Amino acid sequence: MSAIDDSTADGPTPTIQVLFALHNLFSAPDLTGPLEIFTSAHHKPHSPAFECTIAAPTPSVKSSSGLIVKADIDYEDAHADLGDYDILIVPGGRGVEEILTSASPTSPSASAASSSSPPQEPTALVKAFAELQVKDSSKERTLVGVSSGALLLAHAGLLQGMAATTDPDLYTKMEILCKEAARRGDLEQTDVMEENYVVNNARFELGEDMEENPFVLSKRPDGRRKSVARKGSNAWKESVKRRESGARRAGLRLGGLRVITSRGGGGGVDVSLYLVAAMVSHEVAEGIAGTGGYRWEKGVTVEGIDV
């Protein structure tokens, strides 16, 4: 299959803007995997579906495996232009533990700092992105935490009242972070699930025949459906414009911000394929998976709205 969406209605389809928020000692696959998927997707020939930007605290940043990546923008510029982005992705890596430790109330660095000090990046950017959606739910935005990057979303209190996942060896740590965030916030708990990826506040288009919808797969024993999403570039374009979609988003938690967390390794790739399928087309996602030799392992959707 082609990595081009042939079903897009006439007229230009906006390029989906993706921002990667890197930190020191990030996990390289959490960046390179999704980057490869997004840059392979096209709305039409010579019309890329996604444009990716890399933000980092320094001009270049090193991954935990030693890969050095040059940043496109710094965090100051990322905050200034945050409203331009549709998707924000936070990778995991060994650097996450350092960020969480420095943010802990019992750490020497935190106790020495003022209680009014701003949170460390990329946590501050993540919180600002969520606040942007709450203030303006007319735009469809997506926040993704890959692998241990999901822990930063948990620490920021953005997973309260939602479901989430991360690497299996980090389930307990995520549960602790979510419980701590609940005590600091409105006491809403987080359902930590043993899944490849978990989607909250999804968008989907049911269509007339549920059996033919490629996003509605088999039901799970507990009644949850696996991977429910919206089909097609034009559906995404129309969803952004329609007033009723904005009203429905406003009624969801975090202003309808689509929040996705995943395992590491291939989890970031699977989430990226999910987003290509939901925002471009299922056929394009399958084409990319086939061409790249990926085995697309689906996750679960726990809440969504029919747009």
Keywords:
single chain, 307 residues, alpha/beta, eight-stranded mixed sheet, two-stranded antiparallel ribbon
Please identify the structural class as seen in this structure: alpha/beta
Q: Would you identify the regions where 5 or more consecutive residues have pLDDT less than 50?
A: 105-116, 213-234
Alpha-carbon Rg, integer = 18 Å
The termini sit apart by: 27 Å
What does this structure look like?
The chain is 35% helix and 18% strand. The protein contains eleven helices and 16 strands. It has helices spanning 28-40, 75-80, 95-103, 108-112, 123-135, 149-155, 171-184, 233-241, 243-250, 267-279, 282-292; strands at 16-21, 42-44, 47-48, 50-56, 60-62, 68-70, 73-74, 87-90, 142-146, 163-164, 191-192, 197-200, 202-204, 258-262, 300-301, 304-306. The strands form five sheets. An eight-stranded mixed β-sheet has the order 7-4-1-8-9-14-12-15, sandwiched between helices. A two-stranded antiparallel sheet has the order 2-3. The longest helix has 14 residues, at 171-184. The protein is globular and about 50 Å long. The two termini are 27 Å apart.
